[in-house]
Amino acid sequence: MTELPHIKSNSGRYALMKQKYSNKNKGRVSVVSSFIFFSFIIPLAFGYAVWRPMTLLWTLTVKQSNHIFWMSSCCCWILFNVKVFEELIYSRKLLLVSNIVLDICMIPTTILPFALSYDIFQIMYKLIFGHPLLFKTKKIWGFCILTISFILNNIGFYRGTHISTTHYTIKTKKLKHSKIRIAHISDIHIGSRLDKLPQKMVNKIIEENPDLVVITGDLIDSHNVISTDLSSFSAFKERNIPIYYTIGNHDIMAGEEYVSSILQYYGIIYLKNQVTQIVIGDEIIQLVGIDDVQSVTKYNEIFDSITSSIHNNIYTILLHHRPQGYKTSVQSGQIDLQLAGHTHDGQVFPFNYIVPLFHSKSYGMYHIKDSSNELVLYTHPGSCAWGPHFRTAAKNLITIFSIESSN
């Protein structure tokens, strides 16, 4: 296939940063806090995660201990900032390197919560019993921390590089007498990953023989992605399987203009705050696409602007990147199924317990009711992992919906 020319999008990360930092006071606070977080807090946390188990397993002098800590922090700073700079400048080479770097950075991340748990336990033990833990006990802790981390890393990298399929059946009176099969994928994050998993995903979807495929955002997450990175999606076009897409926050950061040009090349239809009707056999369904927005207020504004285009007696599926706005959707009585993604169900332990604090409908199927209206909300856990090829929360997933007539 022919490579598309790479355009520097006017709607990508630079535009977002300019908009975010246009207010001088807020902009300065954001720049300073981001610099402190990425250049100090993260490297120090990673350095601590490497340093702590080593101090438990071996007797080190203060000088040796300090050297290990600062060398680990510096290494993590260098590795982590490869990704930061790849995001800030147009560098394909850094994108290729960052795919490896993020996987390396995942190893101390799995150690961190258990290293912290040791220090918390040690402080409590000393307060209760008046003396520190014995060296033998410390060695057991250190061995356990590394063993658990080793197991989690193996599980995480296995689950991050494999994909599963799940099926749901939904009954409706809005179909005449037939069944429609829809493949829902989300958060593929091409850019974070340049491996074979998207091709495996496409092959599995084709085996399911869907009538259409829908993508709820974050297909691309770097403006250094080139069109051939999505070559696996050409299989849908060759088999005349329609693909519909709504934009996600990472696609926006990659640049809406450039992402749109790639989508068009592969025949992926971008539903930008619009409604479309699709004929499948002798059935008609409706798709509503709403661009990714952070606030429910903005979602409501967009929804209200397109609601007059939605026909009430046709089975209607709404695509929106985040699991929000469903209260507005159900109150309208016009939406039957709302599909979302974004959360990854936390992706990595213990974030799967933190994400629900920000998104109450963070993963799975939910039946949303309001007086006489009802819709089904489904939050996808992500078809591929974001950042490292790693996940210990949920699985990489393809979701197949069978929409069947209940008449």
Explain the layout of strands and helices.
Elements: H1 13-20, H2 24-57, H3 62-88, H4 92-129, H5 135-160, E1 164-172, E2 179-185, H6 197-208, E3 212-216, H7 234-238, E4 243-246, H8 249-254, H9 256-265, E5 268-270, E6 274-280, E7 283-290, H10 296-306, E8 315-320, H11 326-332, E9 337-340, E10 364-370, E11 373-379, E12 397-405
Could you give a quick summary of the protein structure above?
The chain has helices at 13-20, 24-57, 62-88, 92-129, 135-160, 197-208, 234-238, 249-254, 256-265, 296-306, 326-332; strands at 164-172, 179-185, 212-216, 243-246, 268-270, 274-280, 283-290, 315-320, 337-340, 364-370, 373-379, 397-405.
Question: Care to count the β-strands?
Answer: 12
Task: Indicate the radius of gyration in whole angstroms.
Answer: 24 Å
Number of helices: 11
Succession of helices and strands: HHHHHEEHEHEHHEEEHEHEEEE
Shape: globular
Trace the largest sheet across and list its strands: 1-12-2-3-4-5
Overall pLDDT metric: 87
Helix content range: 40-55%
Report the structural category.
Answer: alpha/beta
Q: Give the CATH architecture of the largest domain.
A: 4-Layer Sandwich
What can you see in these coordinates?
With 407 residues, the chain is α/β, with parallel strands linked by helices. It folds into two domains: 13-159, no CATH class; 162-405, 4-Layer Sandwich (Purple Acid Phosphatase, chain A, domain 2). 45% of the residues lie in helices and 19% in strands. The protein has helices spanning 13-20, 24-57, 62-88, 92-129, 135-160, 197-208, 234-238, 249-254, 256-265, 296-306, 326-332, and strands at residues 164-172, 179-185, 212-216, 243-246, 268-270, 274-280, 283-290, 315-320, 337-340, 364-370, 373-379, 397-405. The protein has a six-stranded mixed β-sheet with strand order 1-12-2-3-4-5. Strand 8 (315-320), helix 11 (326-332) and strand 9 (337-340) form a beta-alpha-beta unit. The mean pLDDT is 87.
